[in-house]
Design brief:
mainly alpha, 13 helices
């Protein structure tokens, strides 16, 4: 059991400097390319990565800007695209609360939360004492965000070498890697949600290209919650 900050820092560095950073860098390269093609400056592109810190929301912001939508609708679309962070934050923040003396810092720390850090925490926290989990989370989150910012800058300046089809293809690395990470946590409701959500995605997309992804997520997640709860009651 890791119960000191030093070992928690080293574990965070070891976990972050691998596939999480590589996948984030690659997918944010695609975002940087799309942002440049949509007329954003480098500073604004980096700000969107750090401020939104969720690829679907970032892409929604860029696409709505390119379509000439008002700032209000662009922000609304970005917020809806990243709505998945709310249940993630509700389930994750209590796991690191014991290591934070001033709870006002929670508003700062939640900005670094991503599916990478959520999945990494689910895997690592059983081996880390509650008092030092925040140390692990901060180091892991900072390293992942740095990788995302580097990827954004590389994609922005390398836009001439990354065509739009290739950039869109790189974007799919992110959800694919997330699915693998969630499956790796071996959290039963999450695995059920993946099994249900994958086939539901194309079905709902065929029904509605605008709302299909949201409908598939809500339906798959709700069914996973209900099935997990029923199996617990019958156990």
């Amino acid at each position: 059991m890791i119960d000191r900050p030093g070992p928690a820092y080293r574990r965070a560095v070891r976990d972050a400097l691998g596939f999480p950073s590589i996948m984030l860098c690659a997918s944010m390269m695609a975002f940087g390319s799309l942002a440049q093609q949509s007329g954003f400056s480098l500073g604004m592109s980096l700000s969107l990565t750090a401020g939104i810190w969720g690829l679907p929301g970032q892409v929604a912001m860029v696409e709505f800007h390119a379509a000439g939508a008002t700032a209000l609708f662009a922000i609304l679309a970005s917020s809806l695209a990243n709505a998945r962070f709310m249940p993630m934050a509700v389930s994750f923040l209590p796991l690191i609360r014991d290591g934070i003396r001033h709870h006002g810092w929670m508003f700062v720390l939640v900005q670094m939360l991503s599916l990478n850090s959520w999945a990494a925490g689910q895997r690592a926290f059983p081996e880390i004492a509650a008092s030092v989990r925040a140390h692990y989370y901060v180091v892991f989150g900072i390293l992942c965000m740095l990788a995302g910012l580097v990827g954004t800058a590389v994609g922005y300046f390398g836009v001439g070498n990354i065509g739009r089809p290739a950039a869109l293809g790189l974007l799919f690395l992110n959800p694919l890697f997330f699915a693998v990470m969630i499956a790796g946590t071996r959290v039963r409701p999450a695995m059920i949600a993946i099994i249900l959500g994958v086939p539901l995605g194309p079905v709902f997309h065929f029904v509605s290209a605008d709302w299909g992804l949201l409908a598939a997520g809500v339906t798959g997640g709700t069914l996973a919650f209900w099935m997990h709860r029923k199996s617990g009651e019958n156990a």
